Amino acid sequence: MKLYYSPGACSLADHIALEWIGKPYQVERVSKDHSKSPEYLKINPAGAVPALQDGDWVLTQNAAILNFLADSFPESGLGGDGSPKGRAEVNKWLAFANSDVHPTFHPMFGSTAYLGDETAEKTKEAARVKLRGLFQRADEQLVGKVWLTGSRSIADPYLYVVSRWAKATGVDLSGLTHLDRFFKNMEADAGVQKALKDEGLT
Ligand SMILES: N[C@@H](CCC(=O)N[C@@H](CS)C(=O)NCC(=O)O)C(=O)O
User: Is 61 in the pocket of ligand 1 (CB under 6 A)?
Assistant: First the structure.
């Protein structure tokens, strides 16, 4: 399998999951310019990462990729406890990270410039307020838990990635002690450290 990634992007979640799975895989870094090249658009017509290639088959959309990894390597336990409810909990928190938190960062990454807010400061500030509320929910979920759903899953690296973005973009995470503990545990994890190192982030 080969993961197409950009350093620190949402593809870092897949990179960490691949490390946790522990089977051989390859990575290919996709630069901003290359992501819009005809060659890469054949891999992902959205010009985005992640994309996962398995033989001549390519899968895009992060939630699909993470679920595919969990299903391909059930022994990793990354898809939950094996029960339908356990899997649904994992997908609920994966959707939270991928569909609620991730898009709220768009103003910070310049993708709402079409709104005509020249400095984008108002839009960014509104996003920071909304993000504080979302991270508060994750913090509440982590009360008494090491992992989002009780056991390590594909949702955890996604929460870690968006938490990194929050720190980098000035989202107020003060007082979110459970989230802070989760973040520090992730940073201390050998698989997370390997993925960060491979992406040139340490
Ligand atoms: N819905 C897609 C979104 C992927 C996405 O937003 N990727 C970002 C990096 S985190 C990207 O490559 N953006 C570049 C672009 O869209 O031009 C998914 O979940 O995979």
Answer: yes
Domain ranges of the chain: 2-76+193-198, 84-189
Q: What DSSP line would sit under 89-147, residue for residue? A: HHHHHHHIIIIIIHHHTGGGGTTTGGG--TT-HHHHHHHHHHHHHHHHHHHHHTTT-SS
Instruction: Give the pLDDT score at 111.
Output: 73
Where does 84-189 sit in CATH, by number? Answer: 1.20.1050.10
**CA 107 from centre of chain:** 17
pLDDT at 22 over 80: yes
| Per-residue pLDDT tens over the stretch 167-184 | 999 999 999 999 999 999
pTM, rounded to two decimals: 0.96
44 lines ligand 1 (CB under 6 A): no
User: How many CB atoms within 10 Å of residue 172?
Assistant: 13
Is residue 40 classed as helix, strand or coil in its secondary structure? helix
Strands 26-29, 2-5: pairing kind: parallel
Stretch 153-157: mean pLDDT:
98
Mean pLDDT of 157-164: 98
Nearest of 78, 13, 22 to residue 49 by alpha carbon: 13
Tell me if domain 2-76+193-198 and domain 84-189 are identical in fold: no
Reported CATH class of domain 2-76+193-198: alpha beta
**130 CA → ligand 1 middle, Å:** 20
The answer, yes or no, to whether any atom of ligand 1 lies below 6 A from the CB of 12, is no
